[in-house]
Amino acid sequence: MEGQSDKQIQDEHRLAEMGYRQDLKRDWSMLHNFGVSFSIISVITGLTTLFSYGLNTGGPGYIWQIIDLNTRKAMFVGAGMAEIVSAIPTSGGPYFWAAIMAPHHASAFLSWVTGWYVEIETSKFNLLGQVAVTTGITFGLAGLVSTTATVGTSYEPTAGKTLGIYAVILFSHGVINSFGVRFLRYLNNTSIFLHSVGISCFCIAVLAKAPTHQSAKFVFSTFNDGTGVDTIGWSIRASPAYVAACGILMSQYTITGMAHYLIPRFLPQLPNL
Q1: How far apart are CA 93 and CA 97, in angstroms?
Q2: How many other C-beta atoms can be found within 10 angstroms of the C-beta atom of residue 61?
Q3: Among 25, 104, 137, 260, which residue's Cβ finds the most Cβ atoms within 10 Å?
């Protein structure tokens, strides 16, 4: 226990009372944990890849409604998971929670299902969801890199070039994650700074330099259907409810529950605050 603080020693004693030996270093702070969540949600990524989608599947008024709906839902899920992790503090993994809270005869099976398939809040397949989200965001980044490279240059993006950039970025993910948790937490802190500065710059630039500003009525109450072809959207072909359901995906993609599912798994890295 040499070099450990009194708080760390108390944490080890508390774990020992519960029948566990501390294996993790528990050297993360709340800021590091927040950095993971903030990076996963990534407001900048959502703006650049999903803003036009939301404007075409419901419009600005509907965007505010679904953000409000999903935020409330996320708060309820987060509060429920906070209650669970406060009662079962030995591990942040939802699969472990399932094993503890499920009936004894089904705990192993339900823990396995939770760990491999069920993703908290979204009820999506976790393994497929992880693959789809990671590859989807990376492909979006590859497109942004390819587009940025055209500014002031003669570079012409093609599908092959974008795919090559995509492969390089995926490879870099594997290399970066190989350095371990200690290195990743500094990347998370950097992400907090870049996201905060980037979002602030976007807001200031739009307010200061936008040629026109829409009225509050347009922003909060306008419904727009930009789906379909030949100006005949799916609100006419099917129903406005169908367009609204598609529009929910804009906010749901960002607040997918990934933060709720991943962050608890990092909680054992934090000292008992």
Answers
A1: 7
A2: 15
A3: 260
CA–CA separation, 206 and 41 (whole Å)? 22
3 state DSSP class of 89? coil
Task: With beta carbons less than 8 A apart as the criterion, state whether 195 and 44 touch.
Answer: yes
pLDDT tens for 44-93 read 777 777 778 888 888 888 888 777 777 787 788 778 877 877 777 666 56
φ, ψ of residue 224 in degrees (nearest 5): -130, 135
- Name the token pair of 269: 């890295």
Compute how many other C-beta atoms are within 10 angstroms of the C-beta atom of residue 147. 13
**What's the per-residue H, E or C state across 222-270?**
CCEECCCECCECHHHHCCHHHHHHHHHHHHHHHCCCHHHHHHHHHHHHC
Q: Which residue has the tokens 């930009």?
A: 226
Q: Phi, psi at residue 229, to the nearest 5°? A: -130, 160
Among candidate residues 240, 191, 234, the one with its CA nearest the CA of residue 61: 240
| pLDDT of 165 | 94
Look at the block and give the residue holding tokens 């798994």: 265
In angstroms, the CA 49 to CA 68 distance is 20
DSSP assignment, residue 119?
P
Judge whether 28 and 266 are in contact, CB under 8 Å.
yes
Give the model's pLDDT for residue 164: 94
Nearest CA-CA partner of 131 in 144, 117, 113: 117
Categorise residue 80: left if φ over 0, alpha if ψ from -120 to 50, beta otherwise: alpha
Instruction: Provide CB contacts within 8 A for 231, sequence distance 6+.
Output: none
State the CB neighbour count (10 A cutoff) for residue 77.
18
Torsion of CA 37, 39, 40, 43, to 10 degrees: 110
Q: Residue 147: what residue type?
A: T
Does the reported pTM lie above 0.70?
no
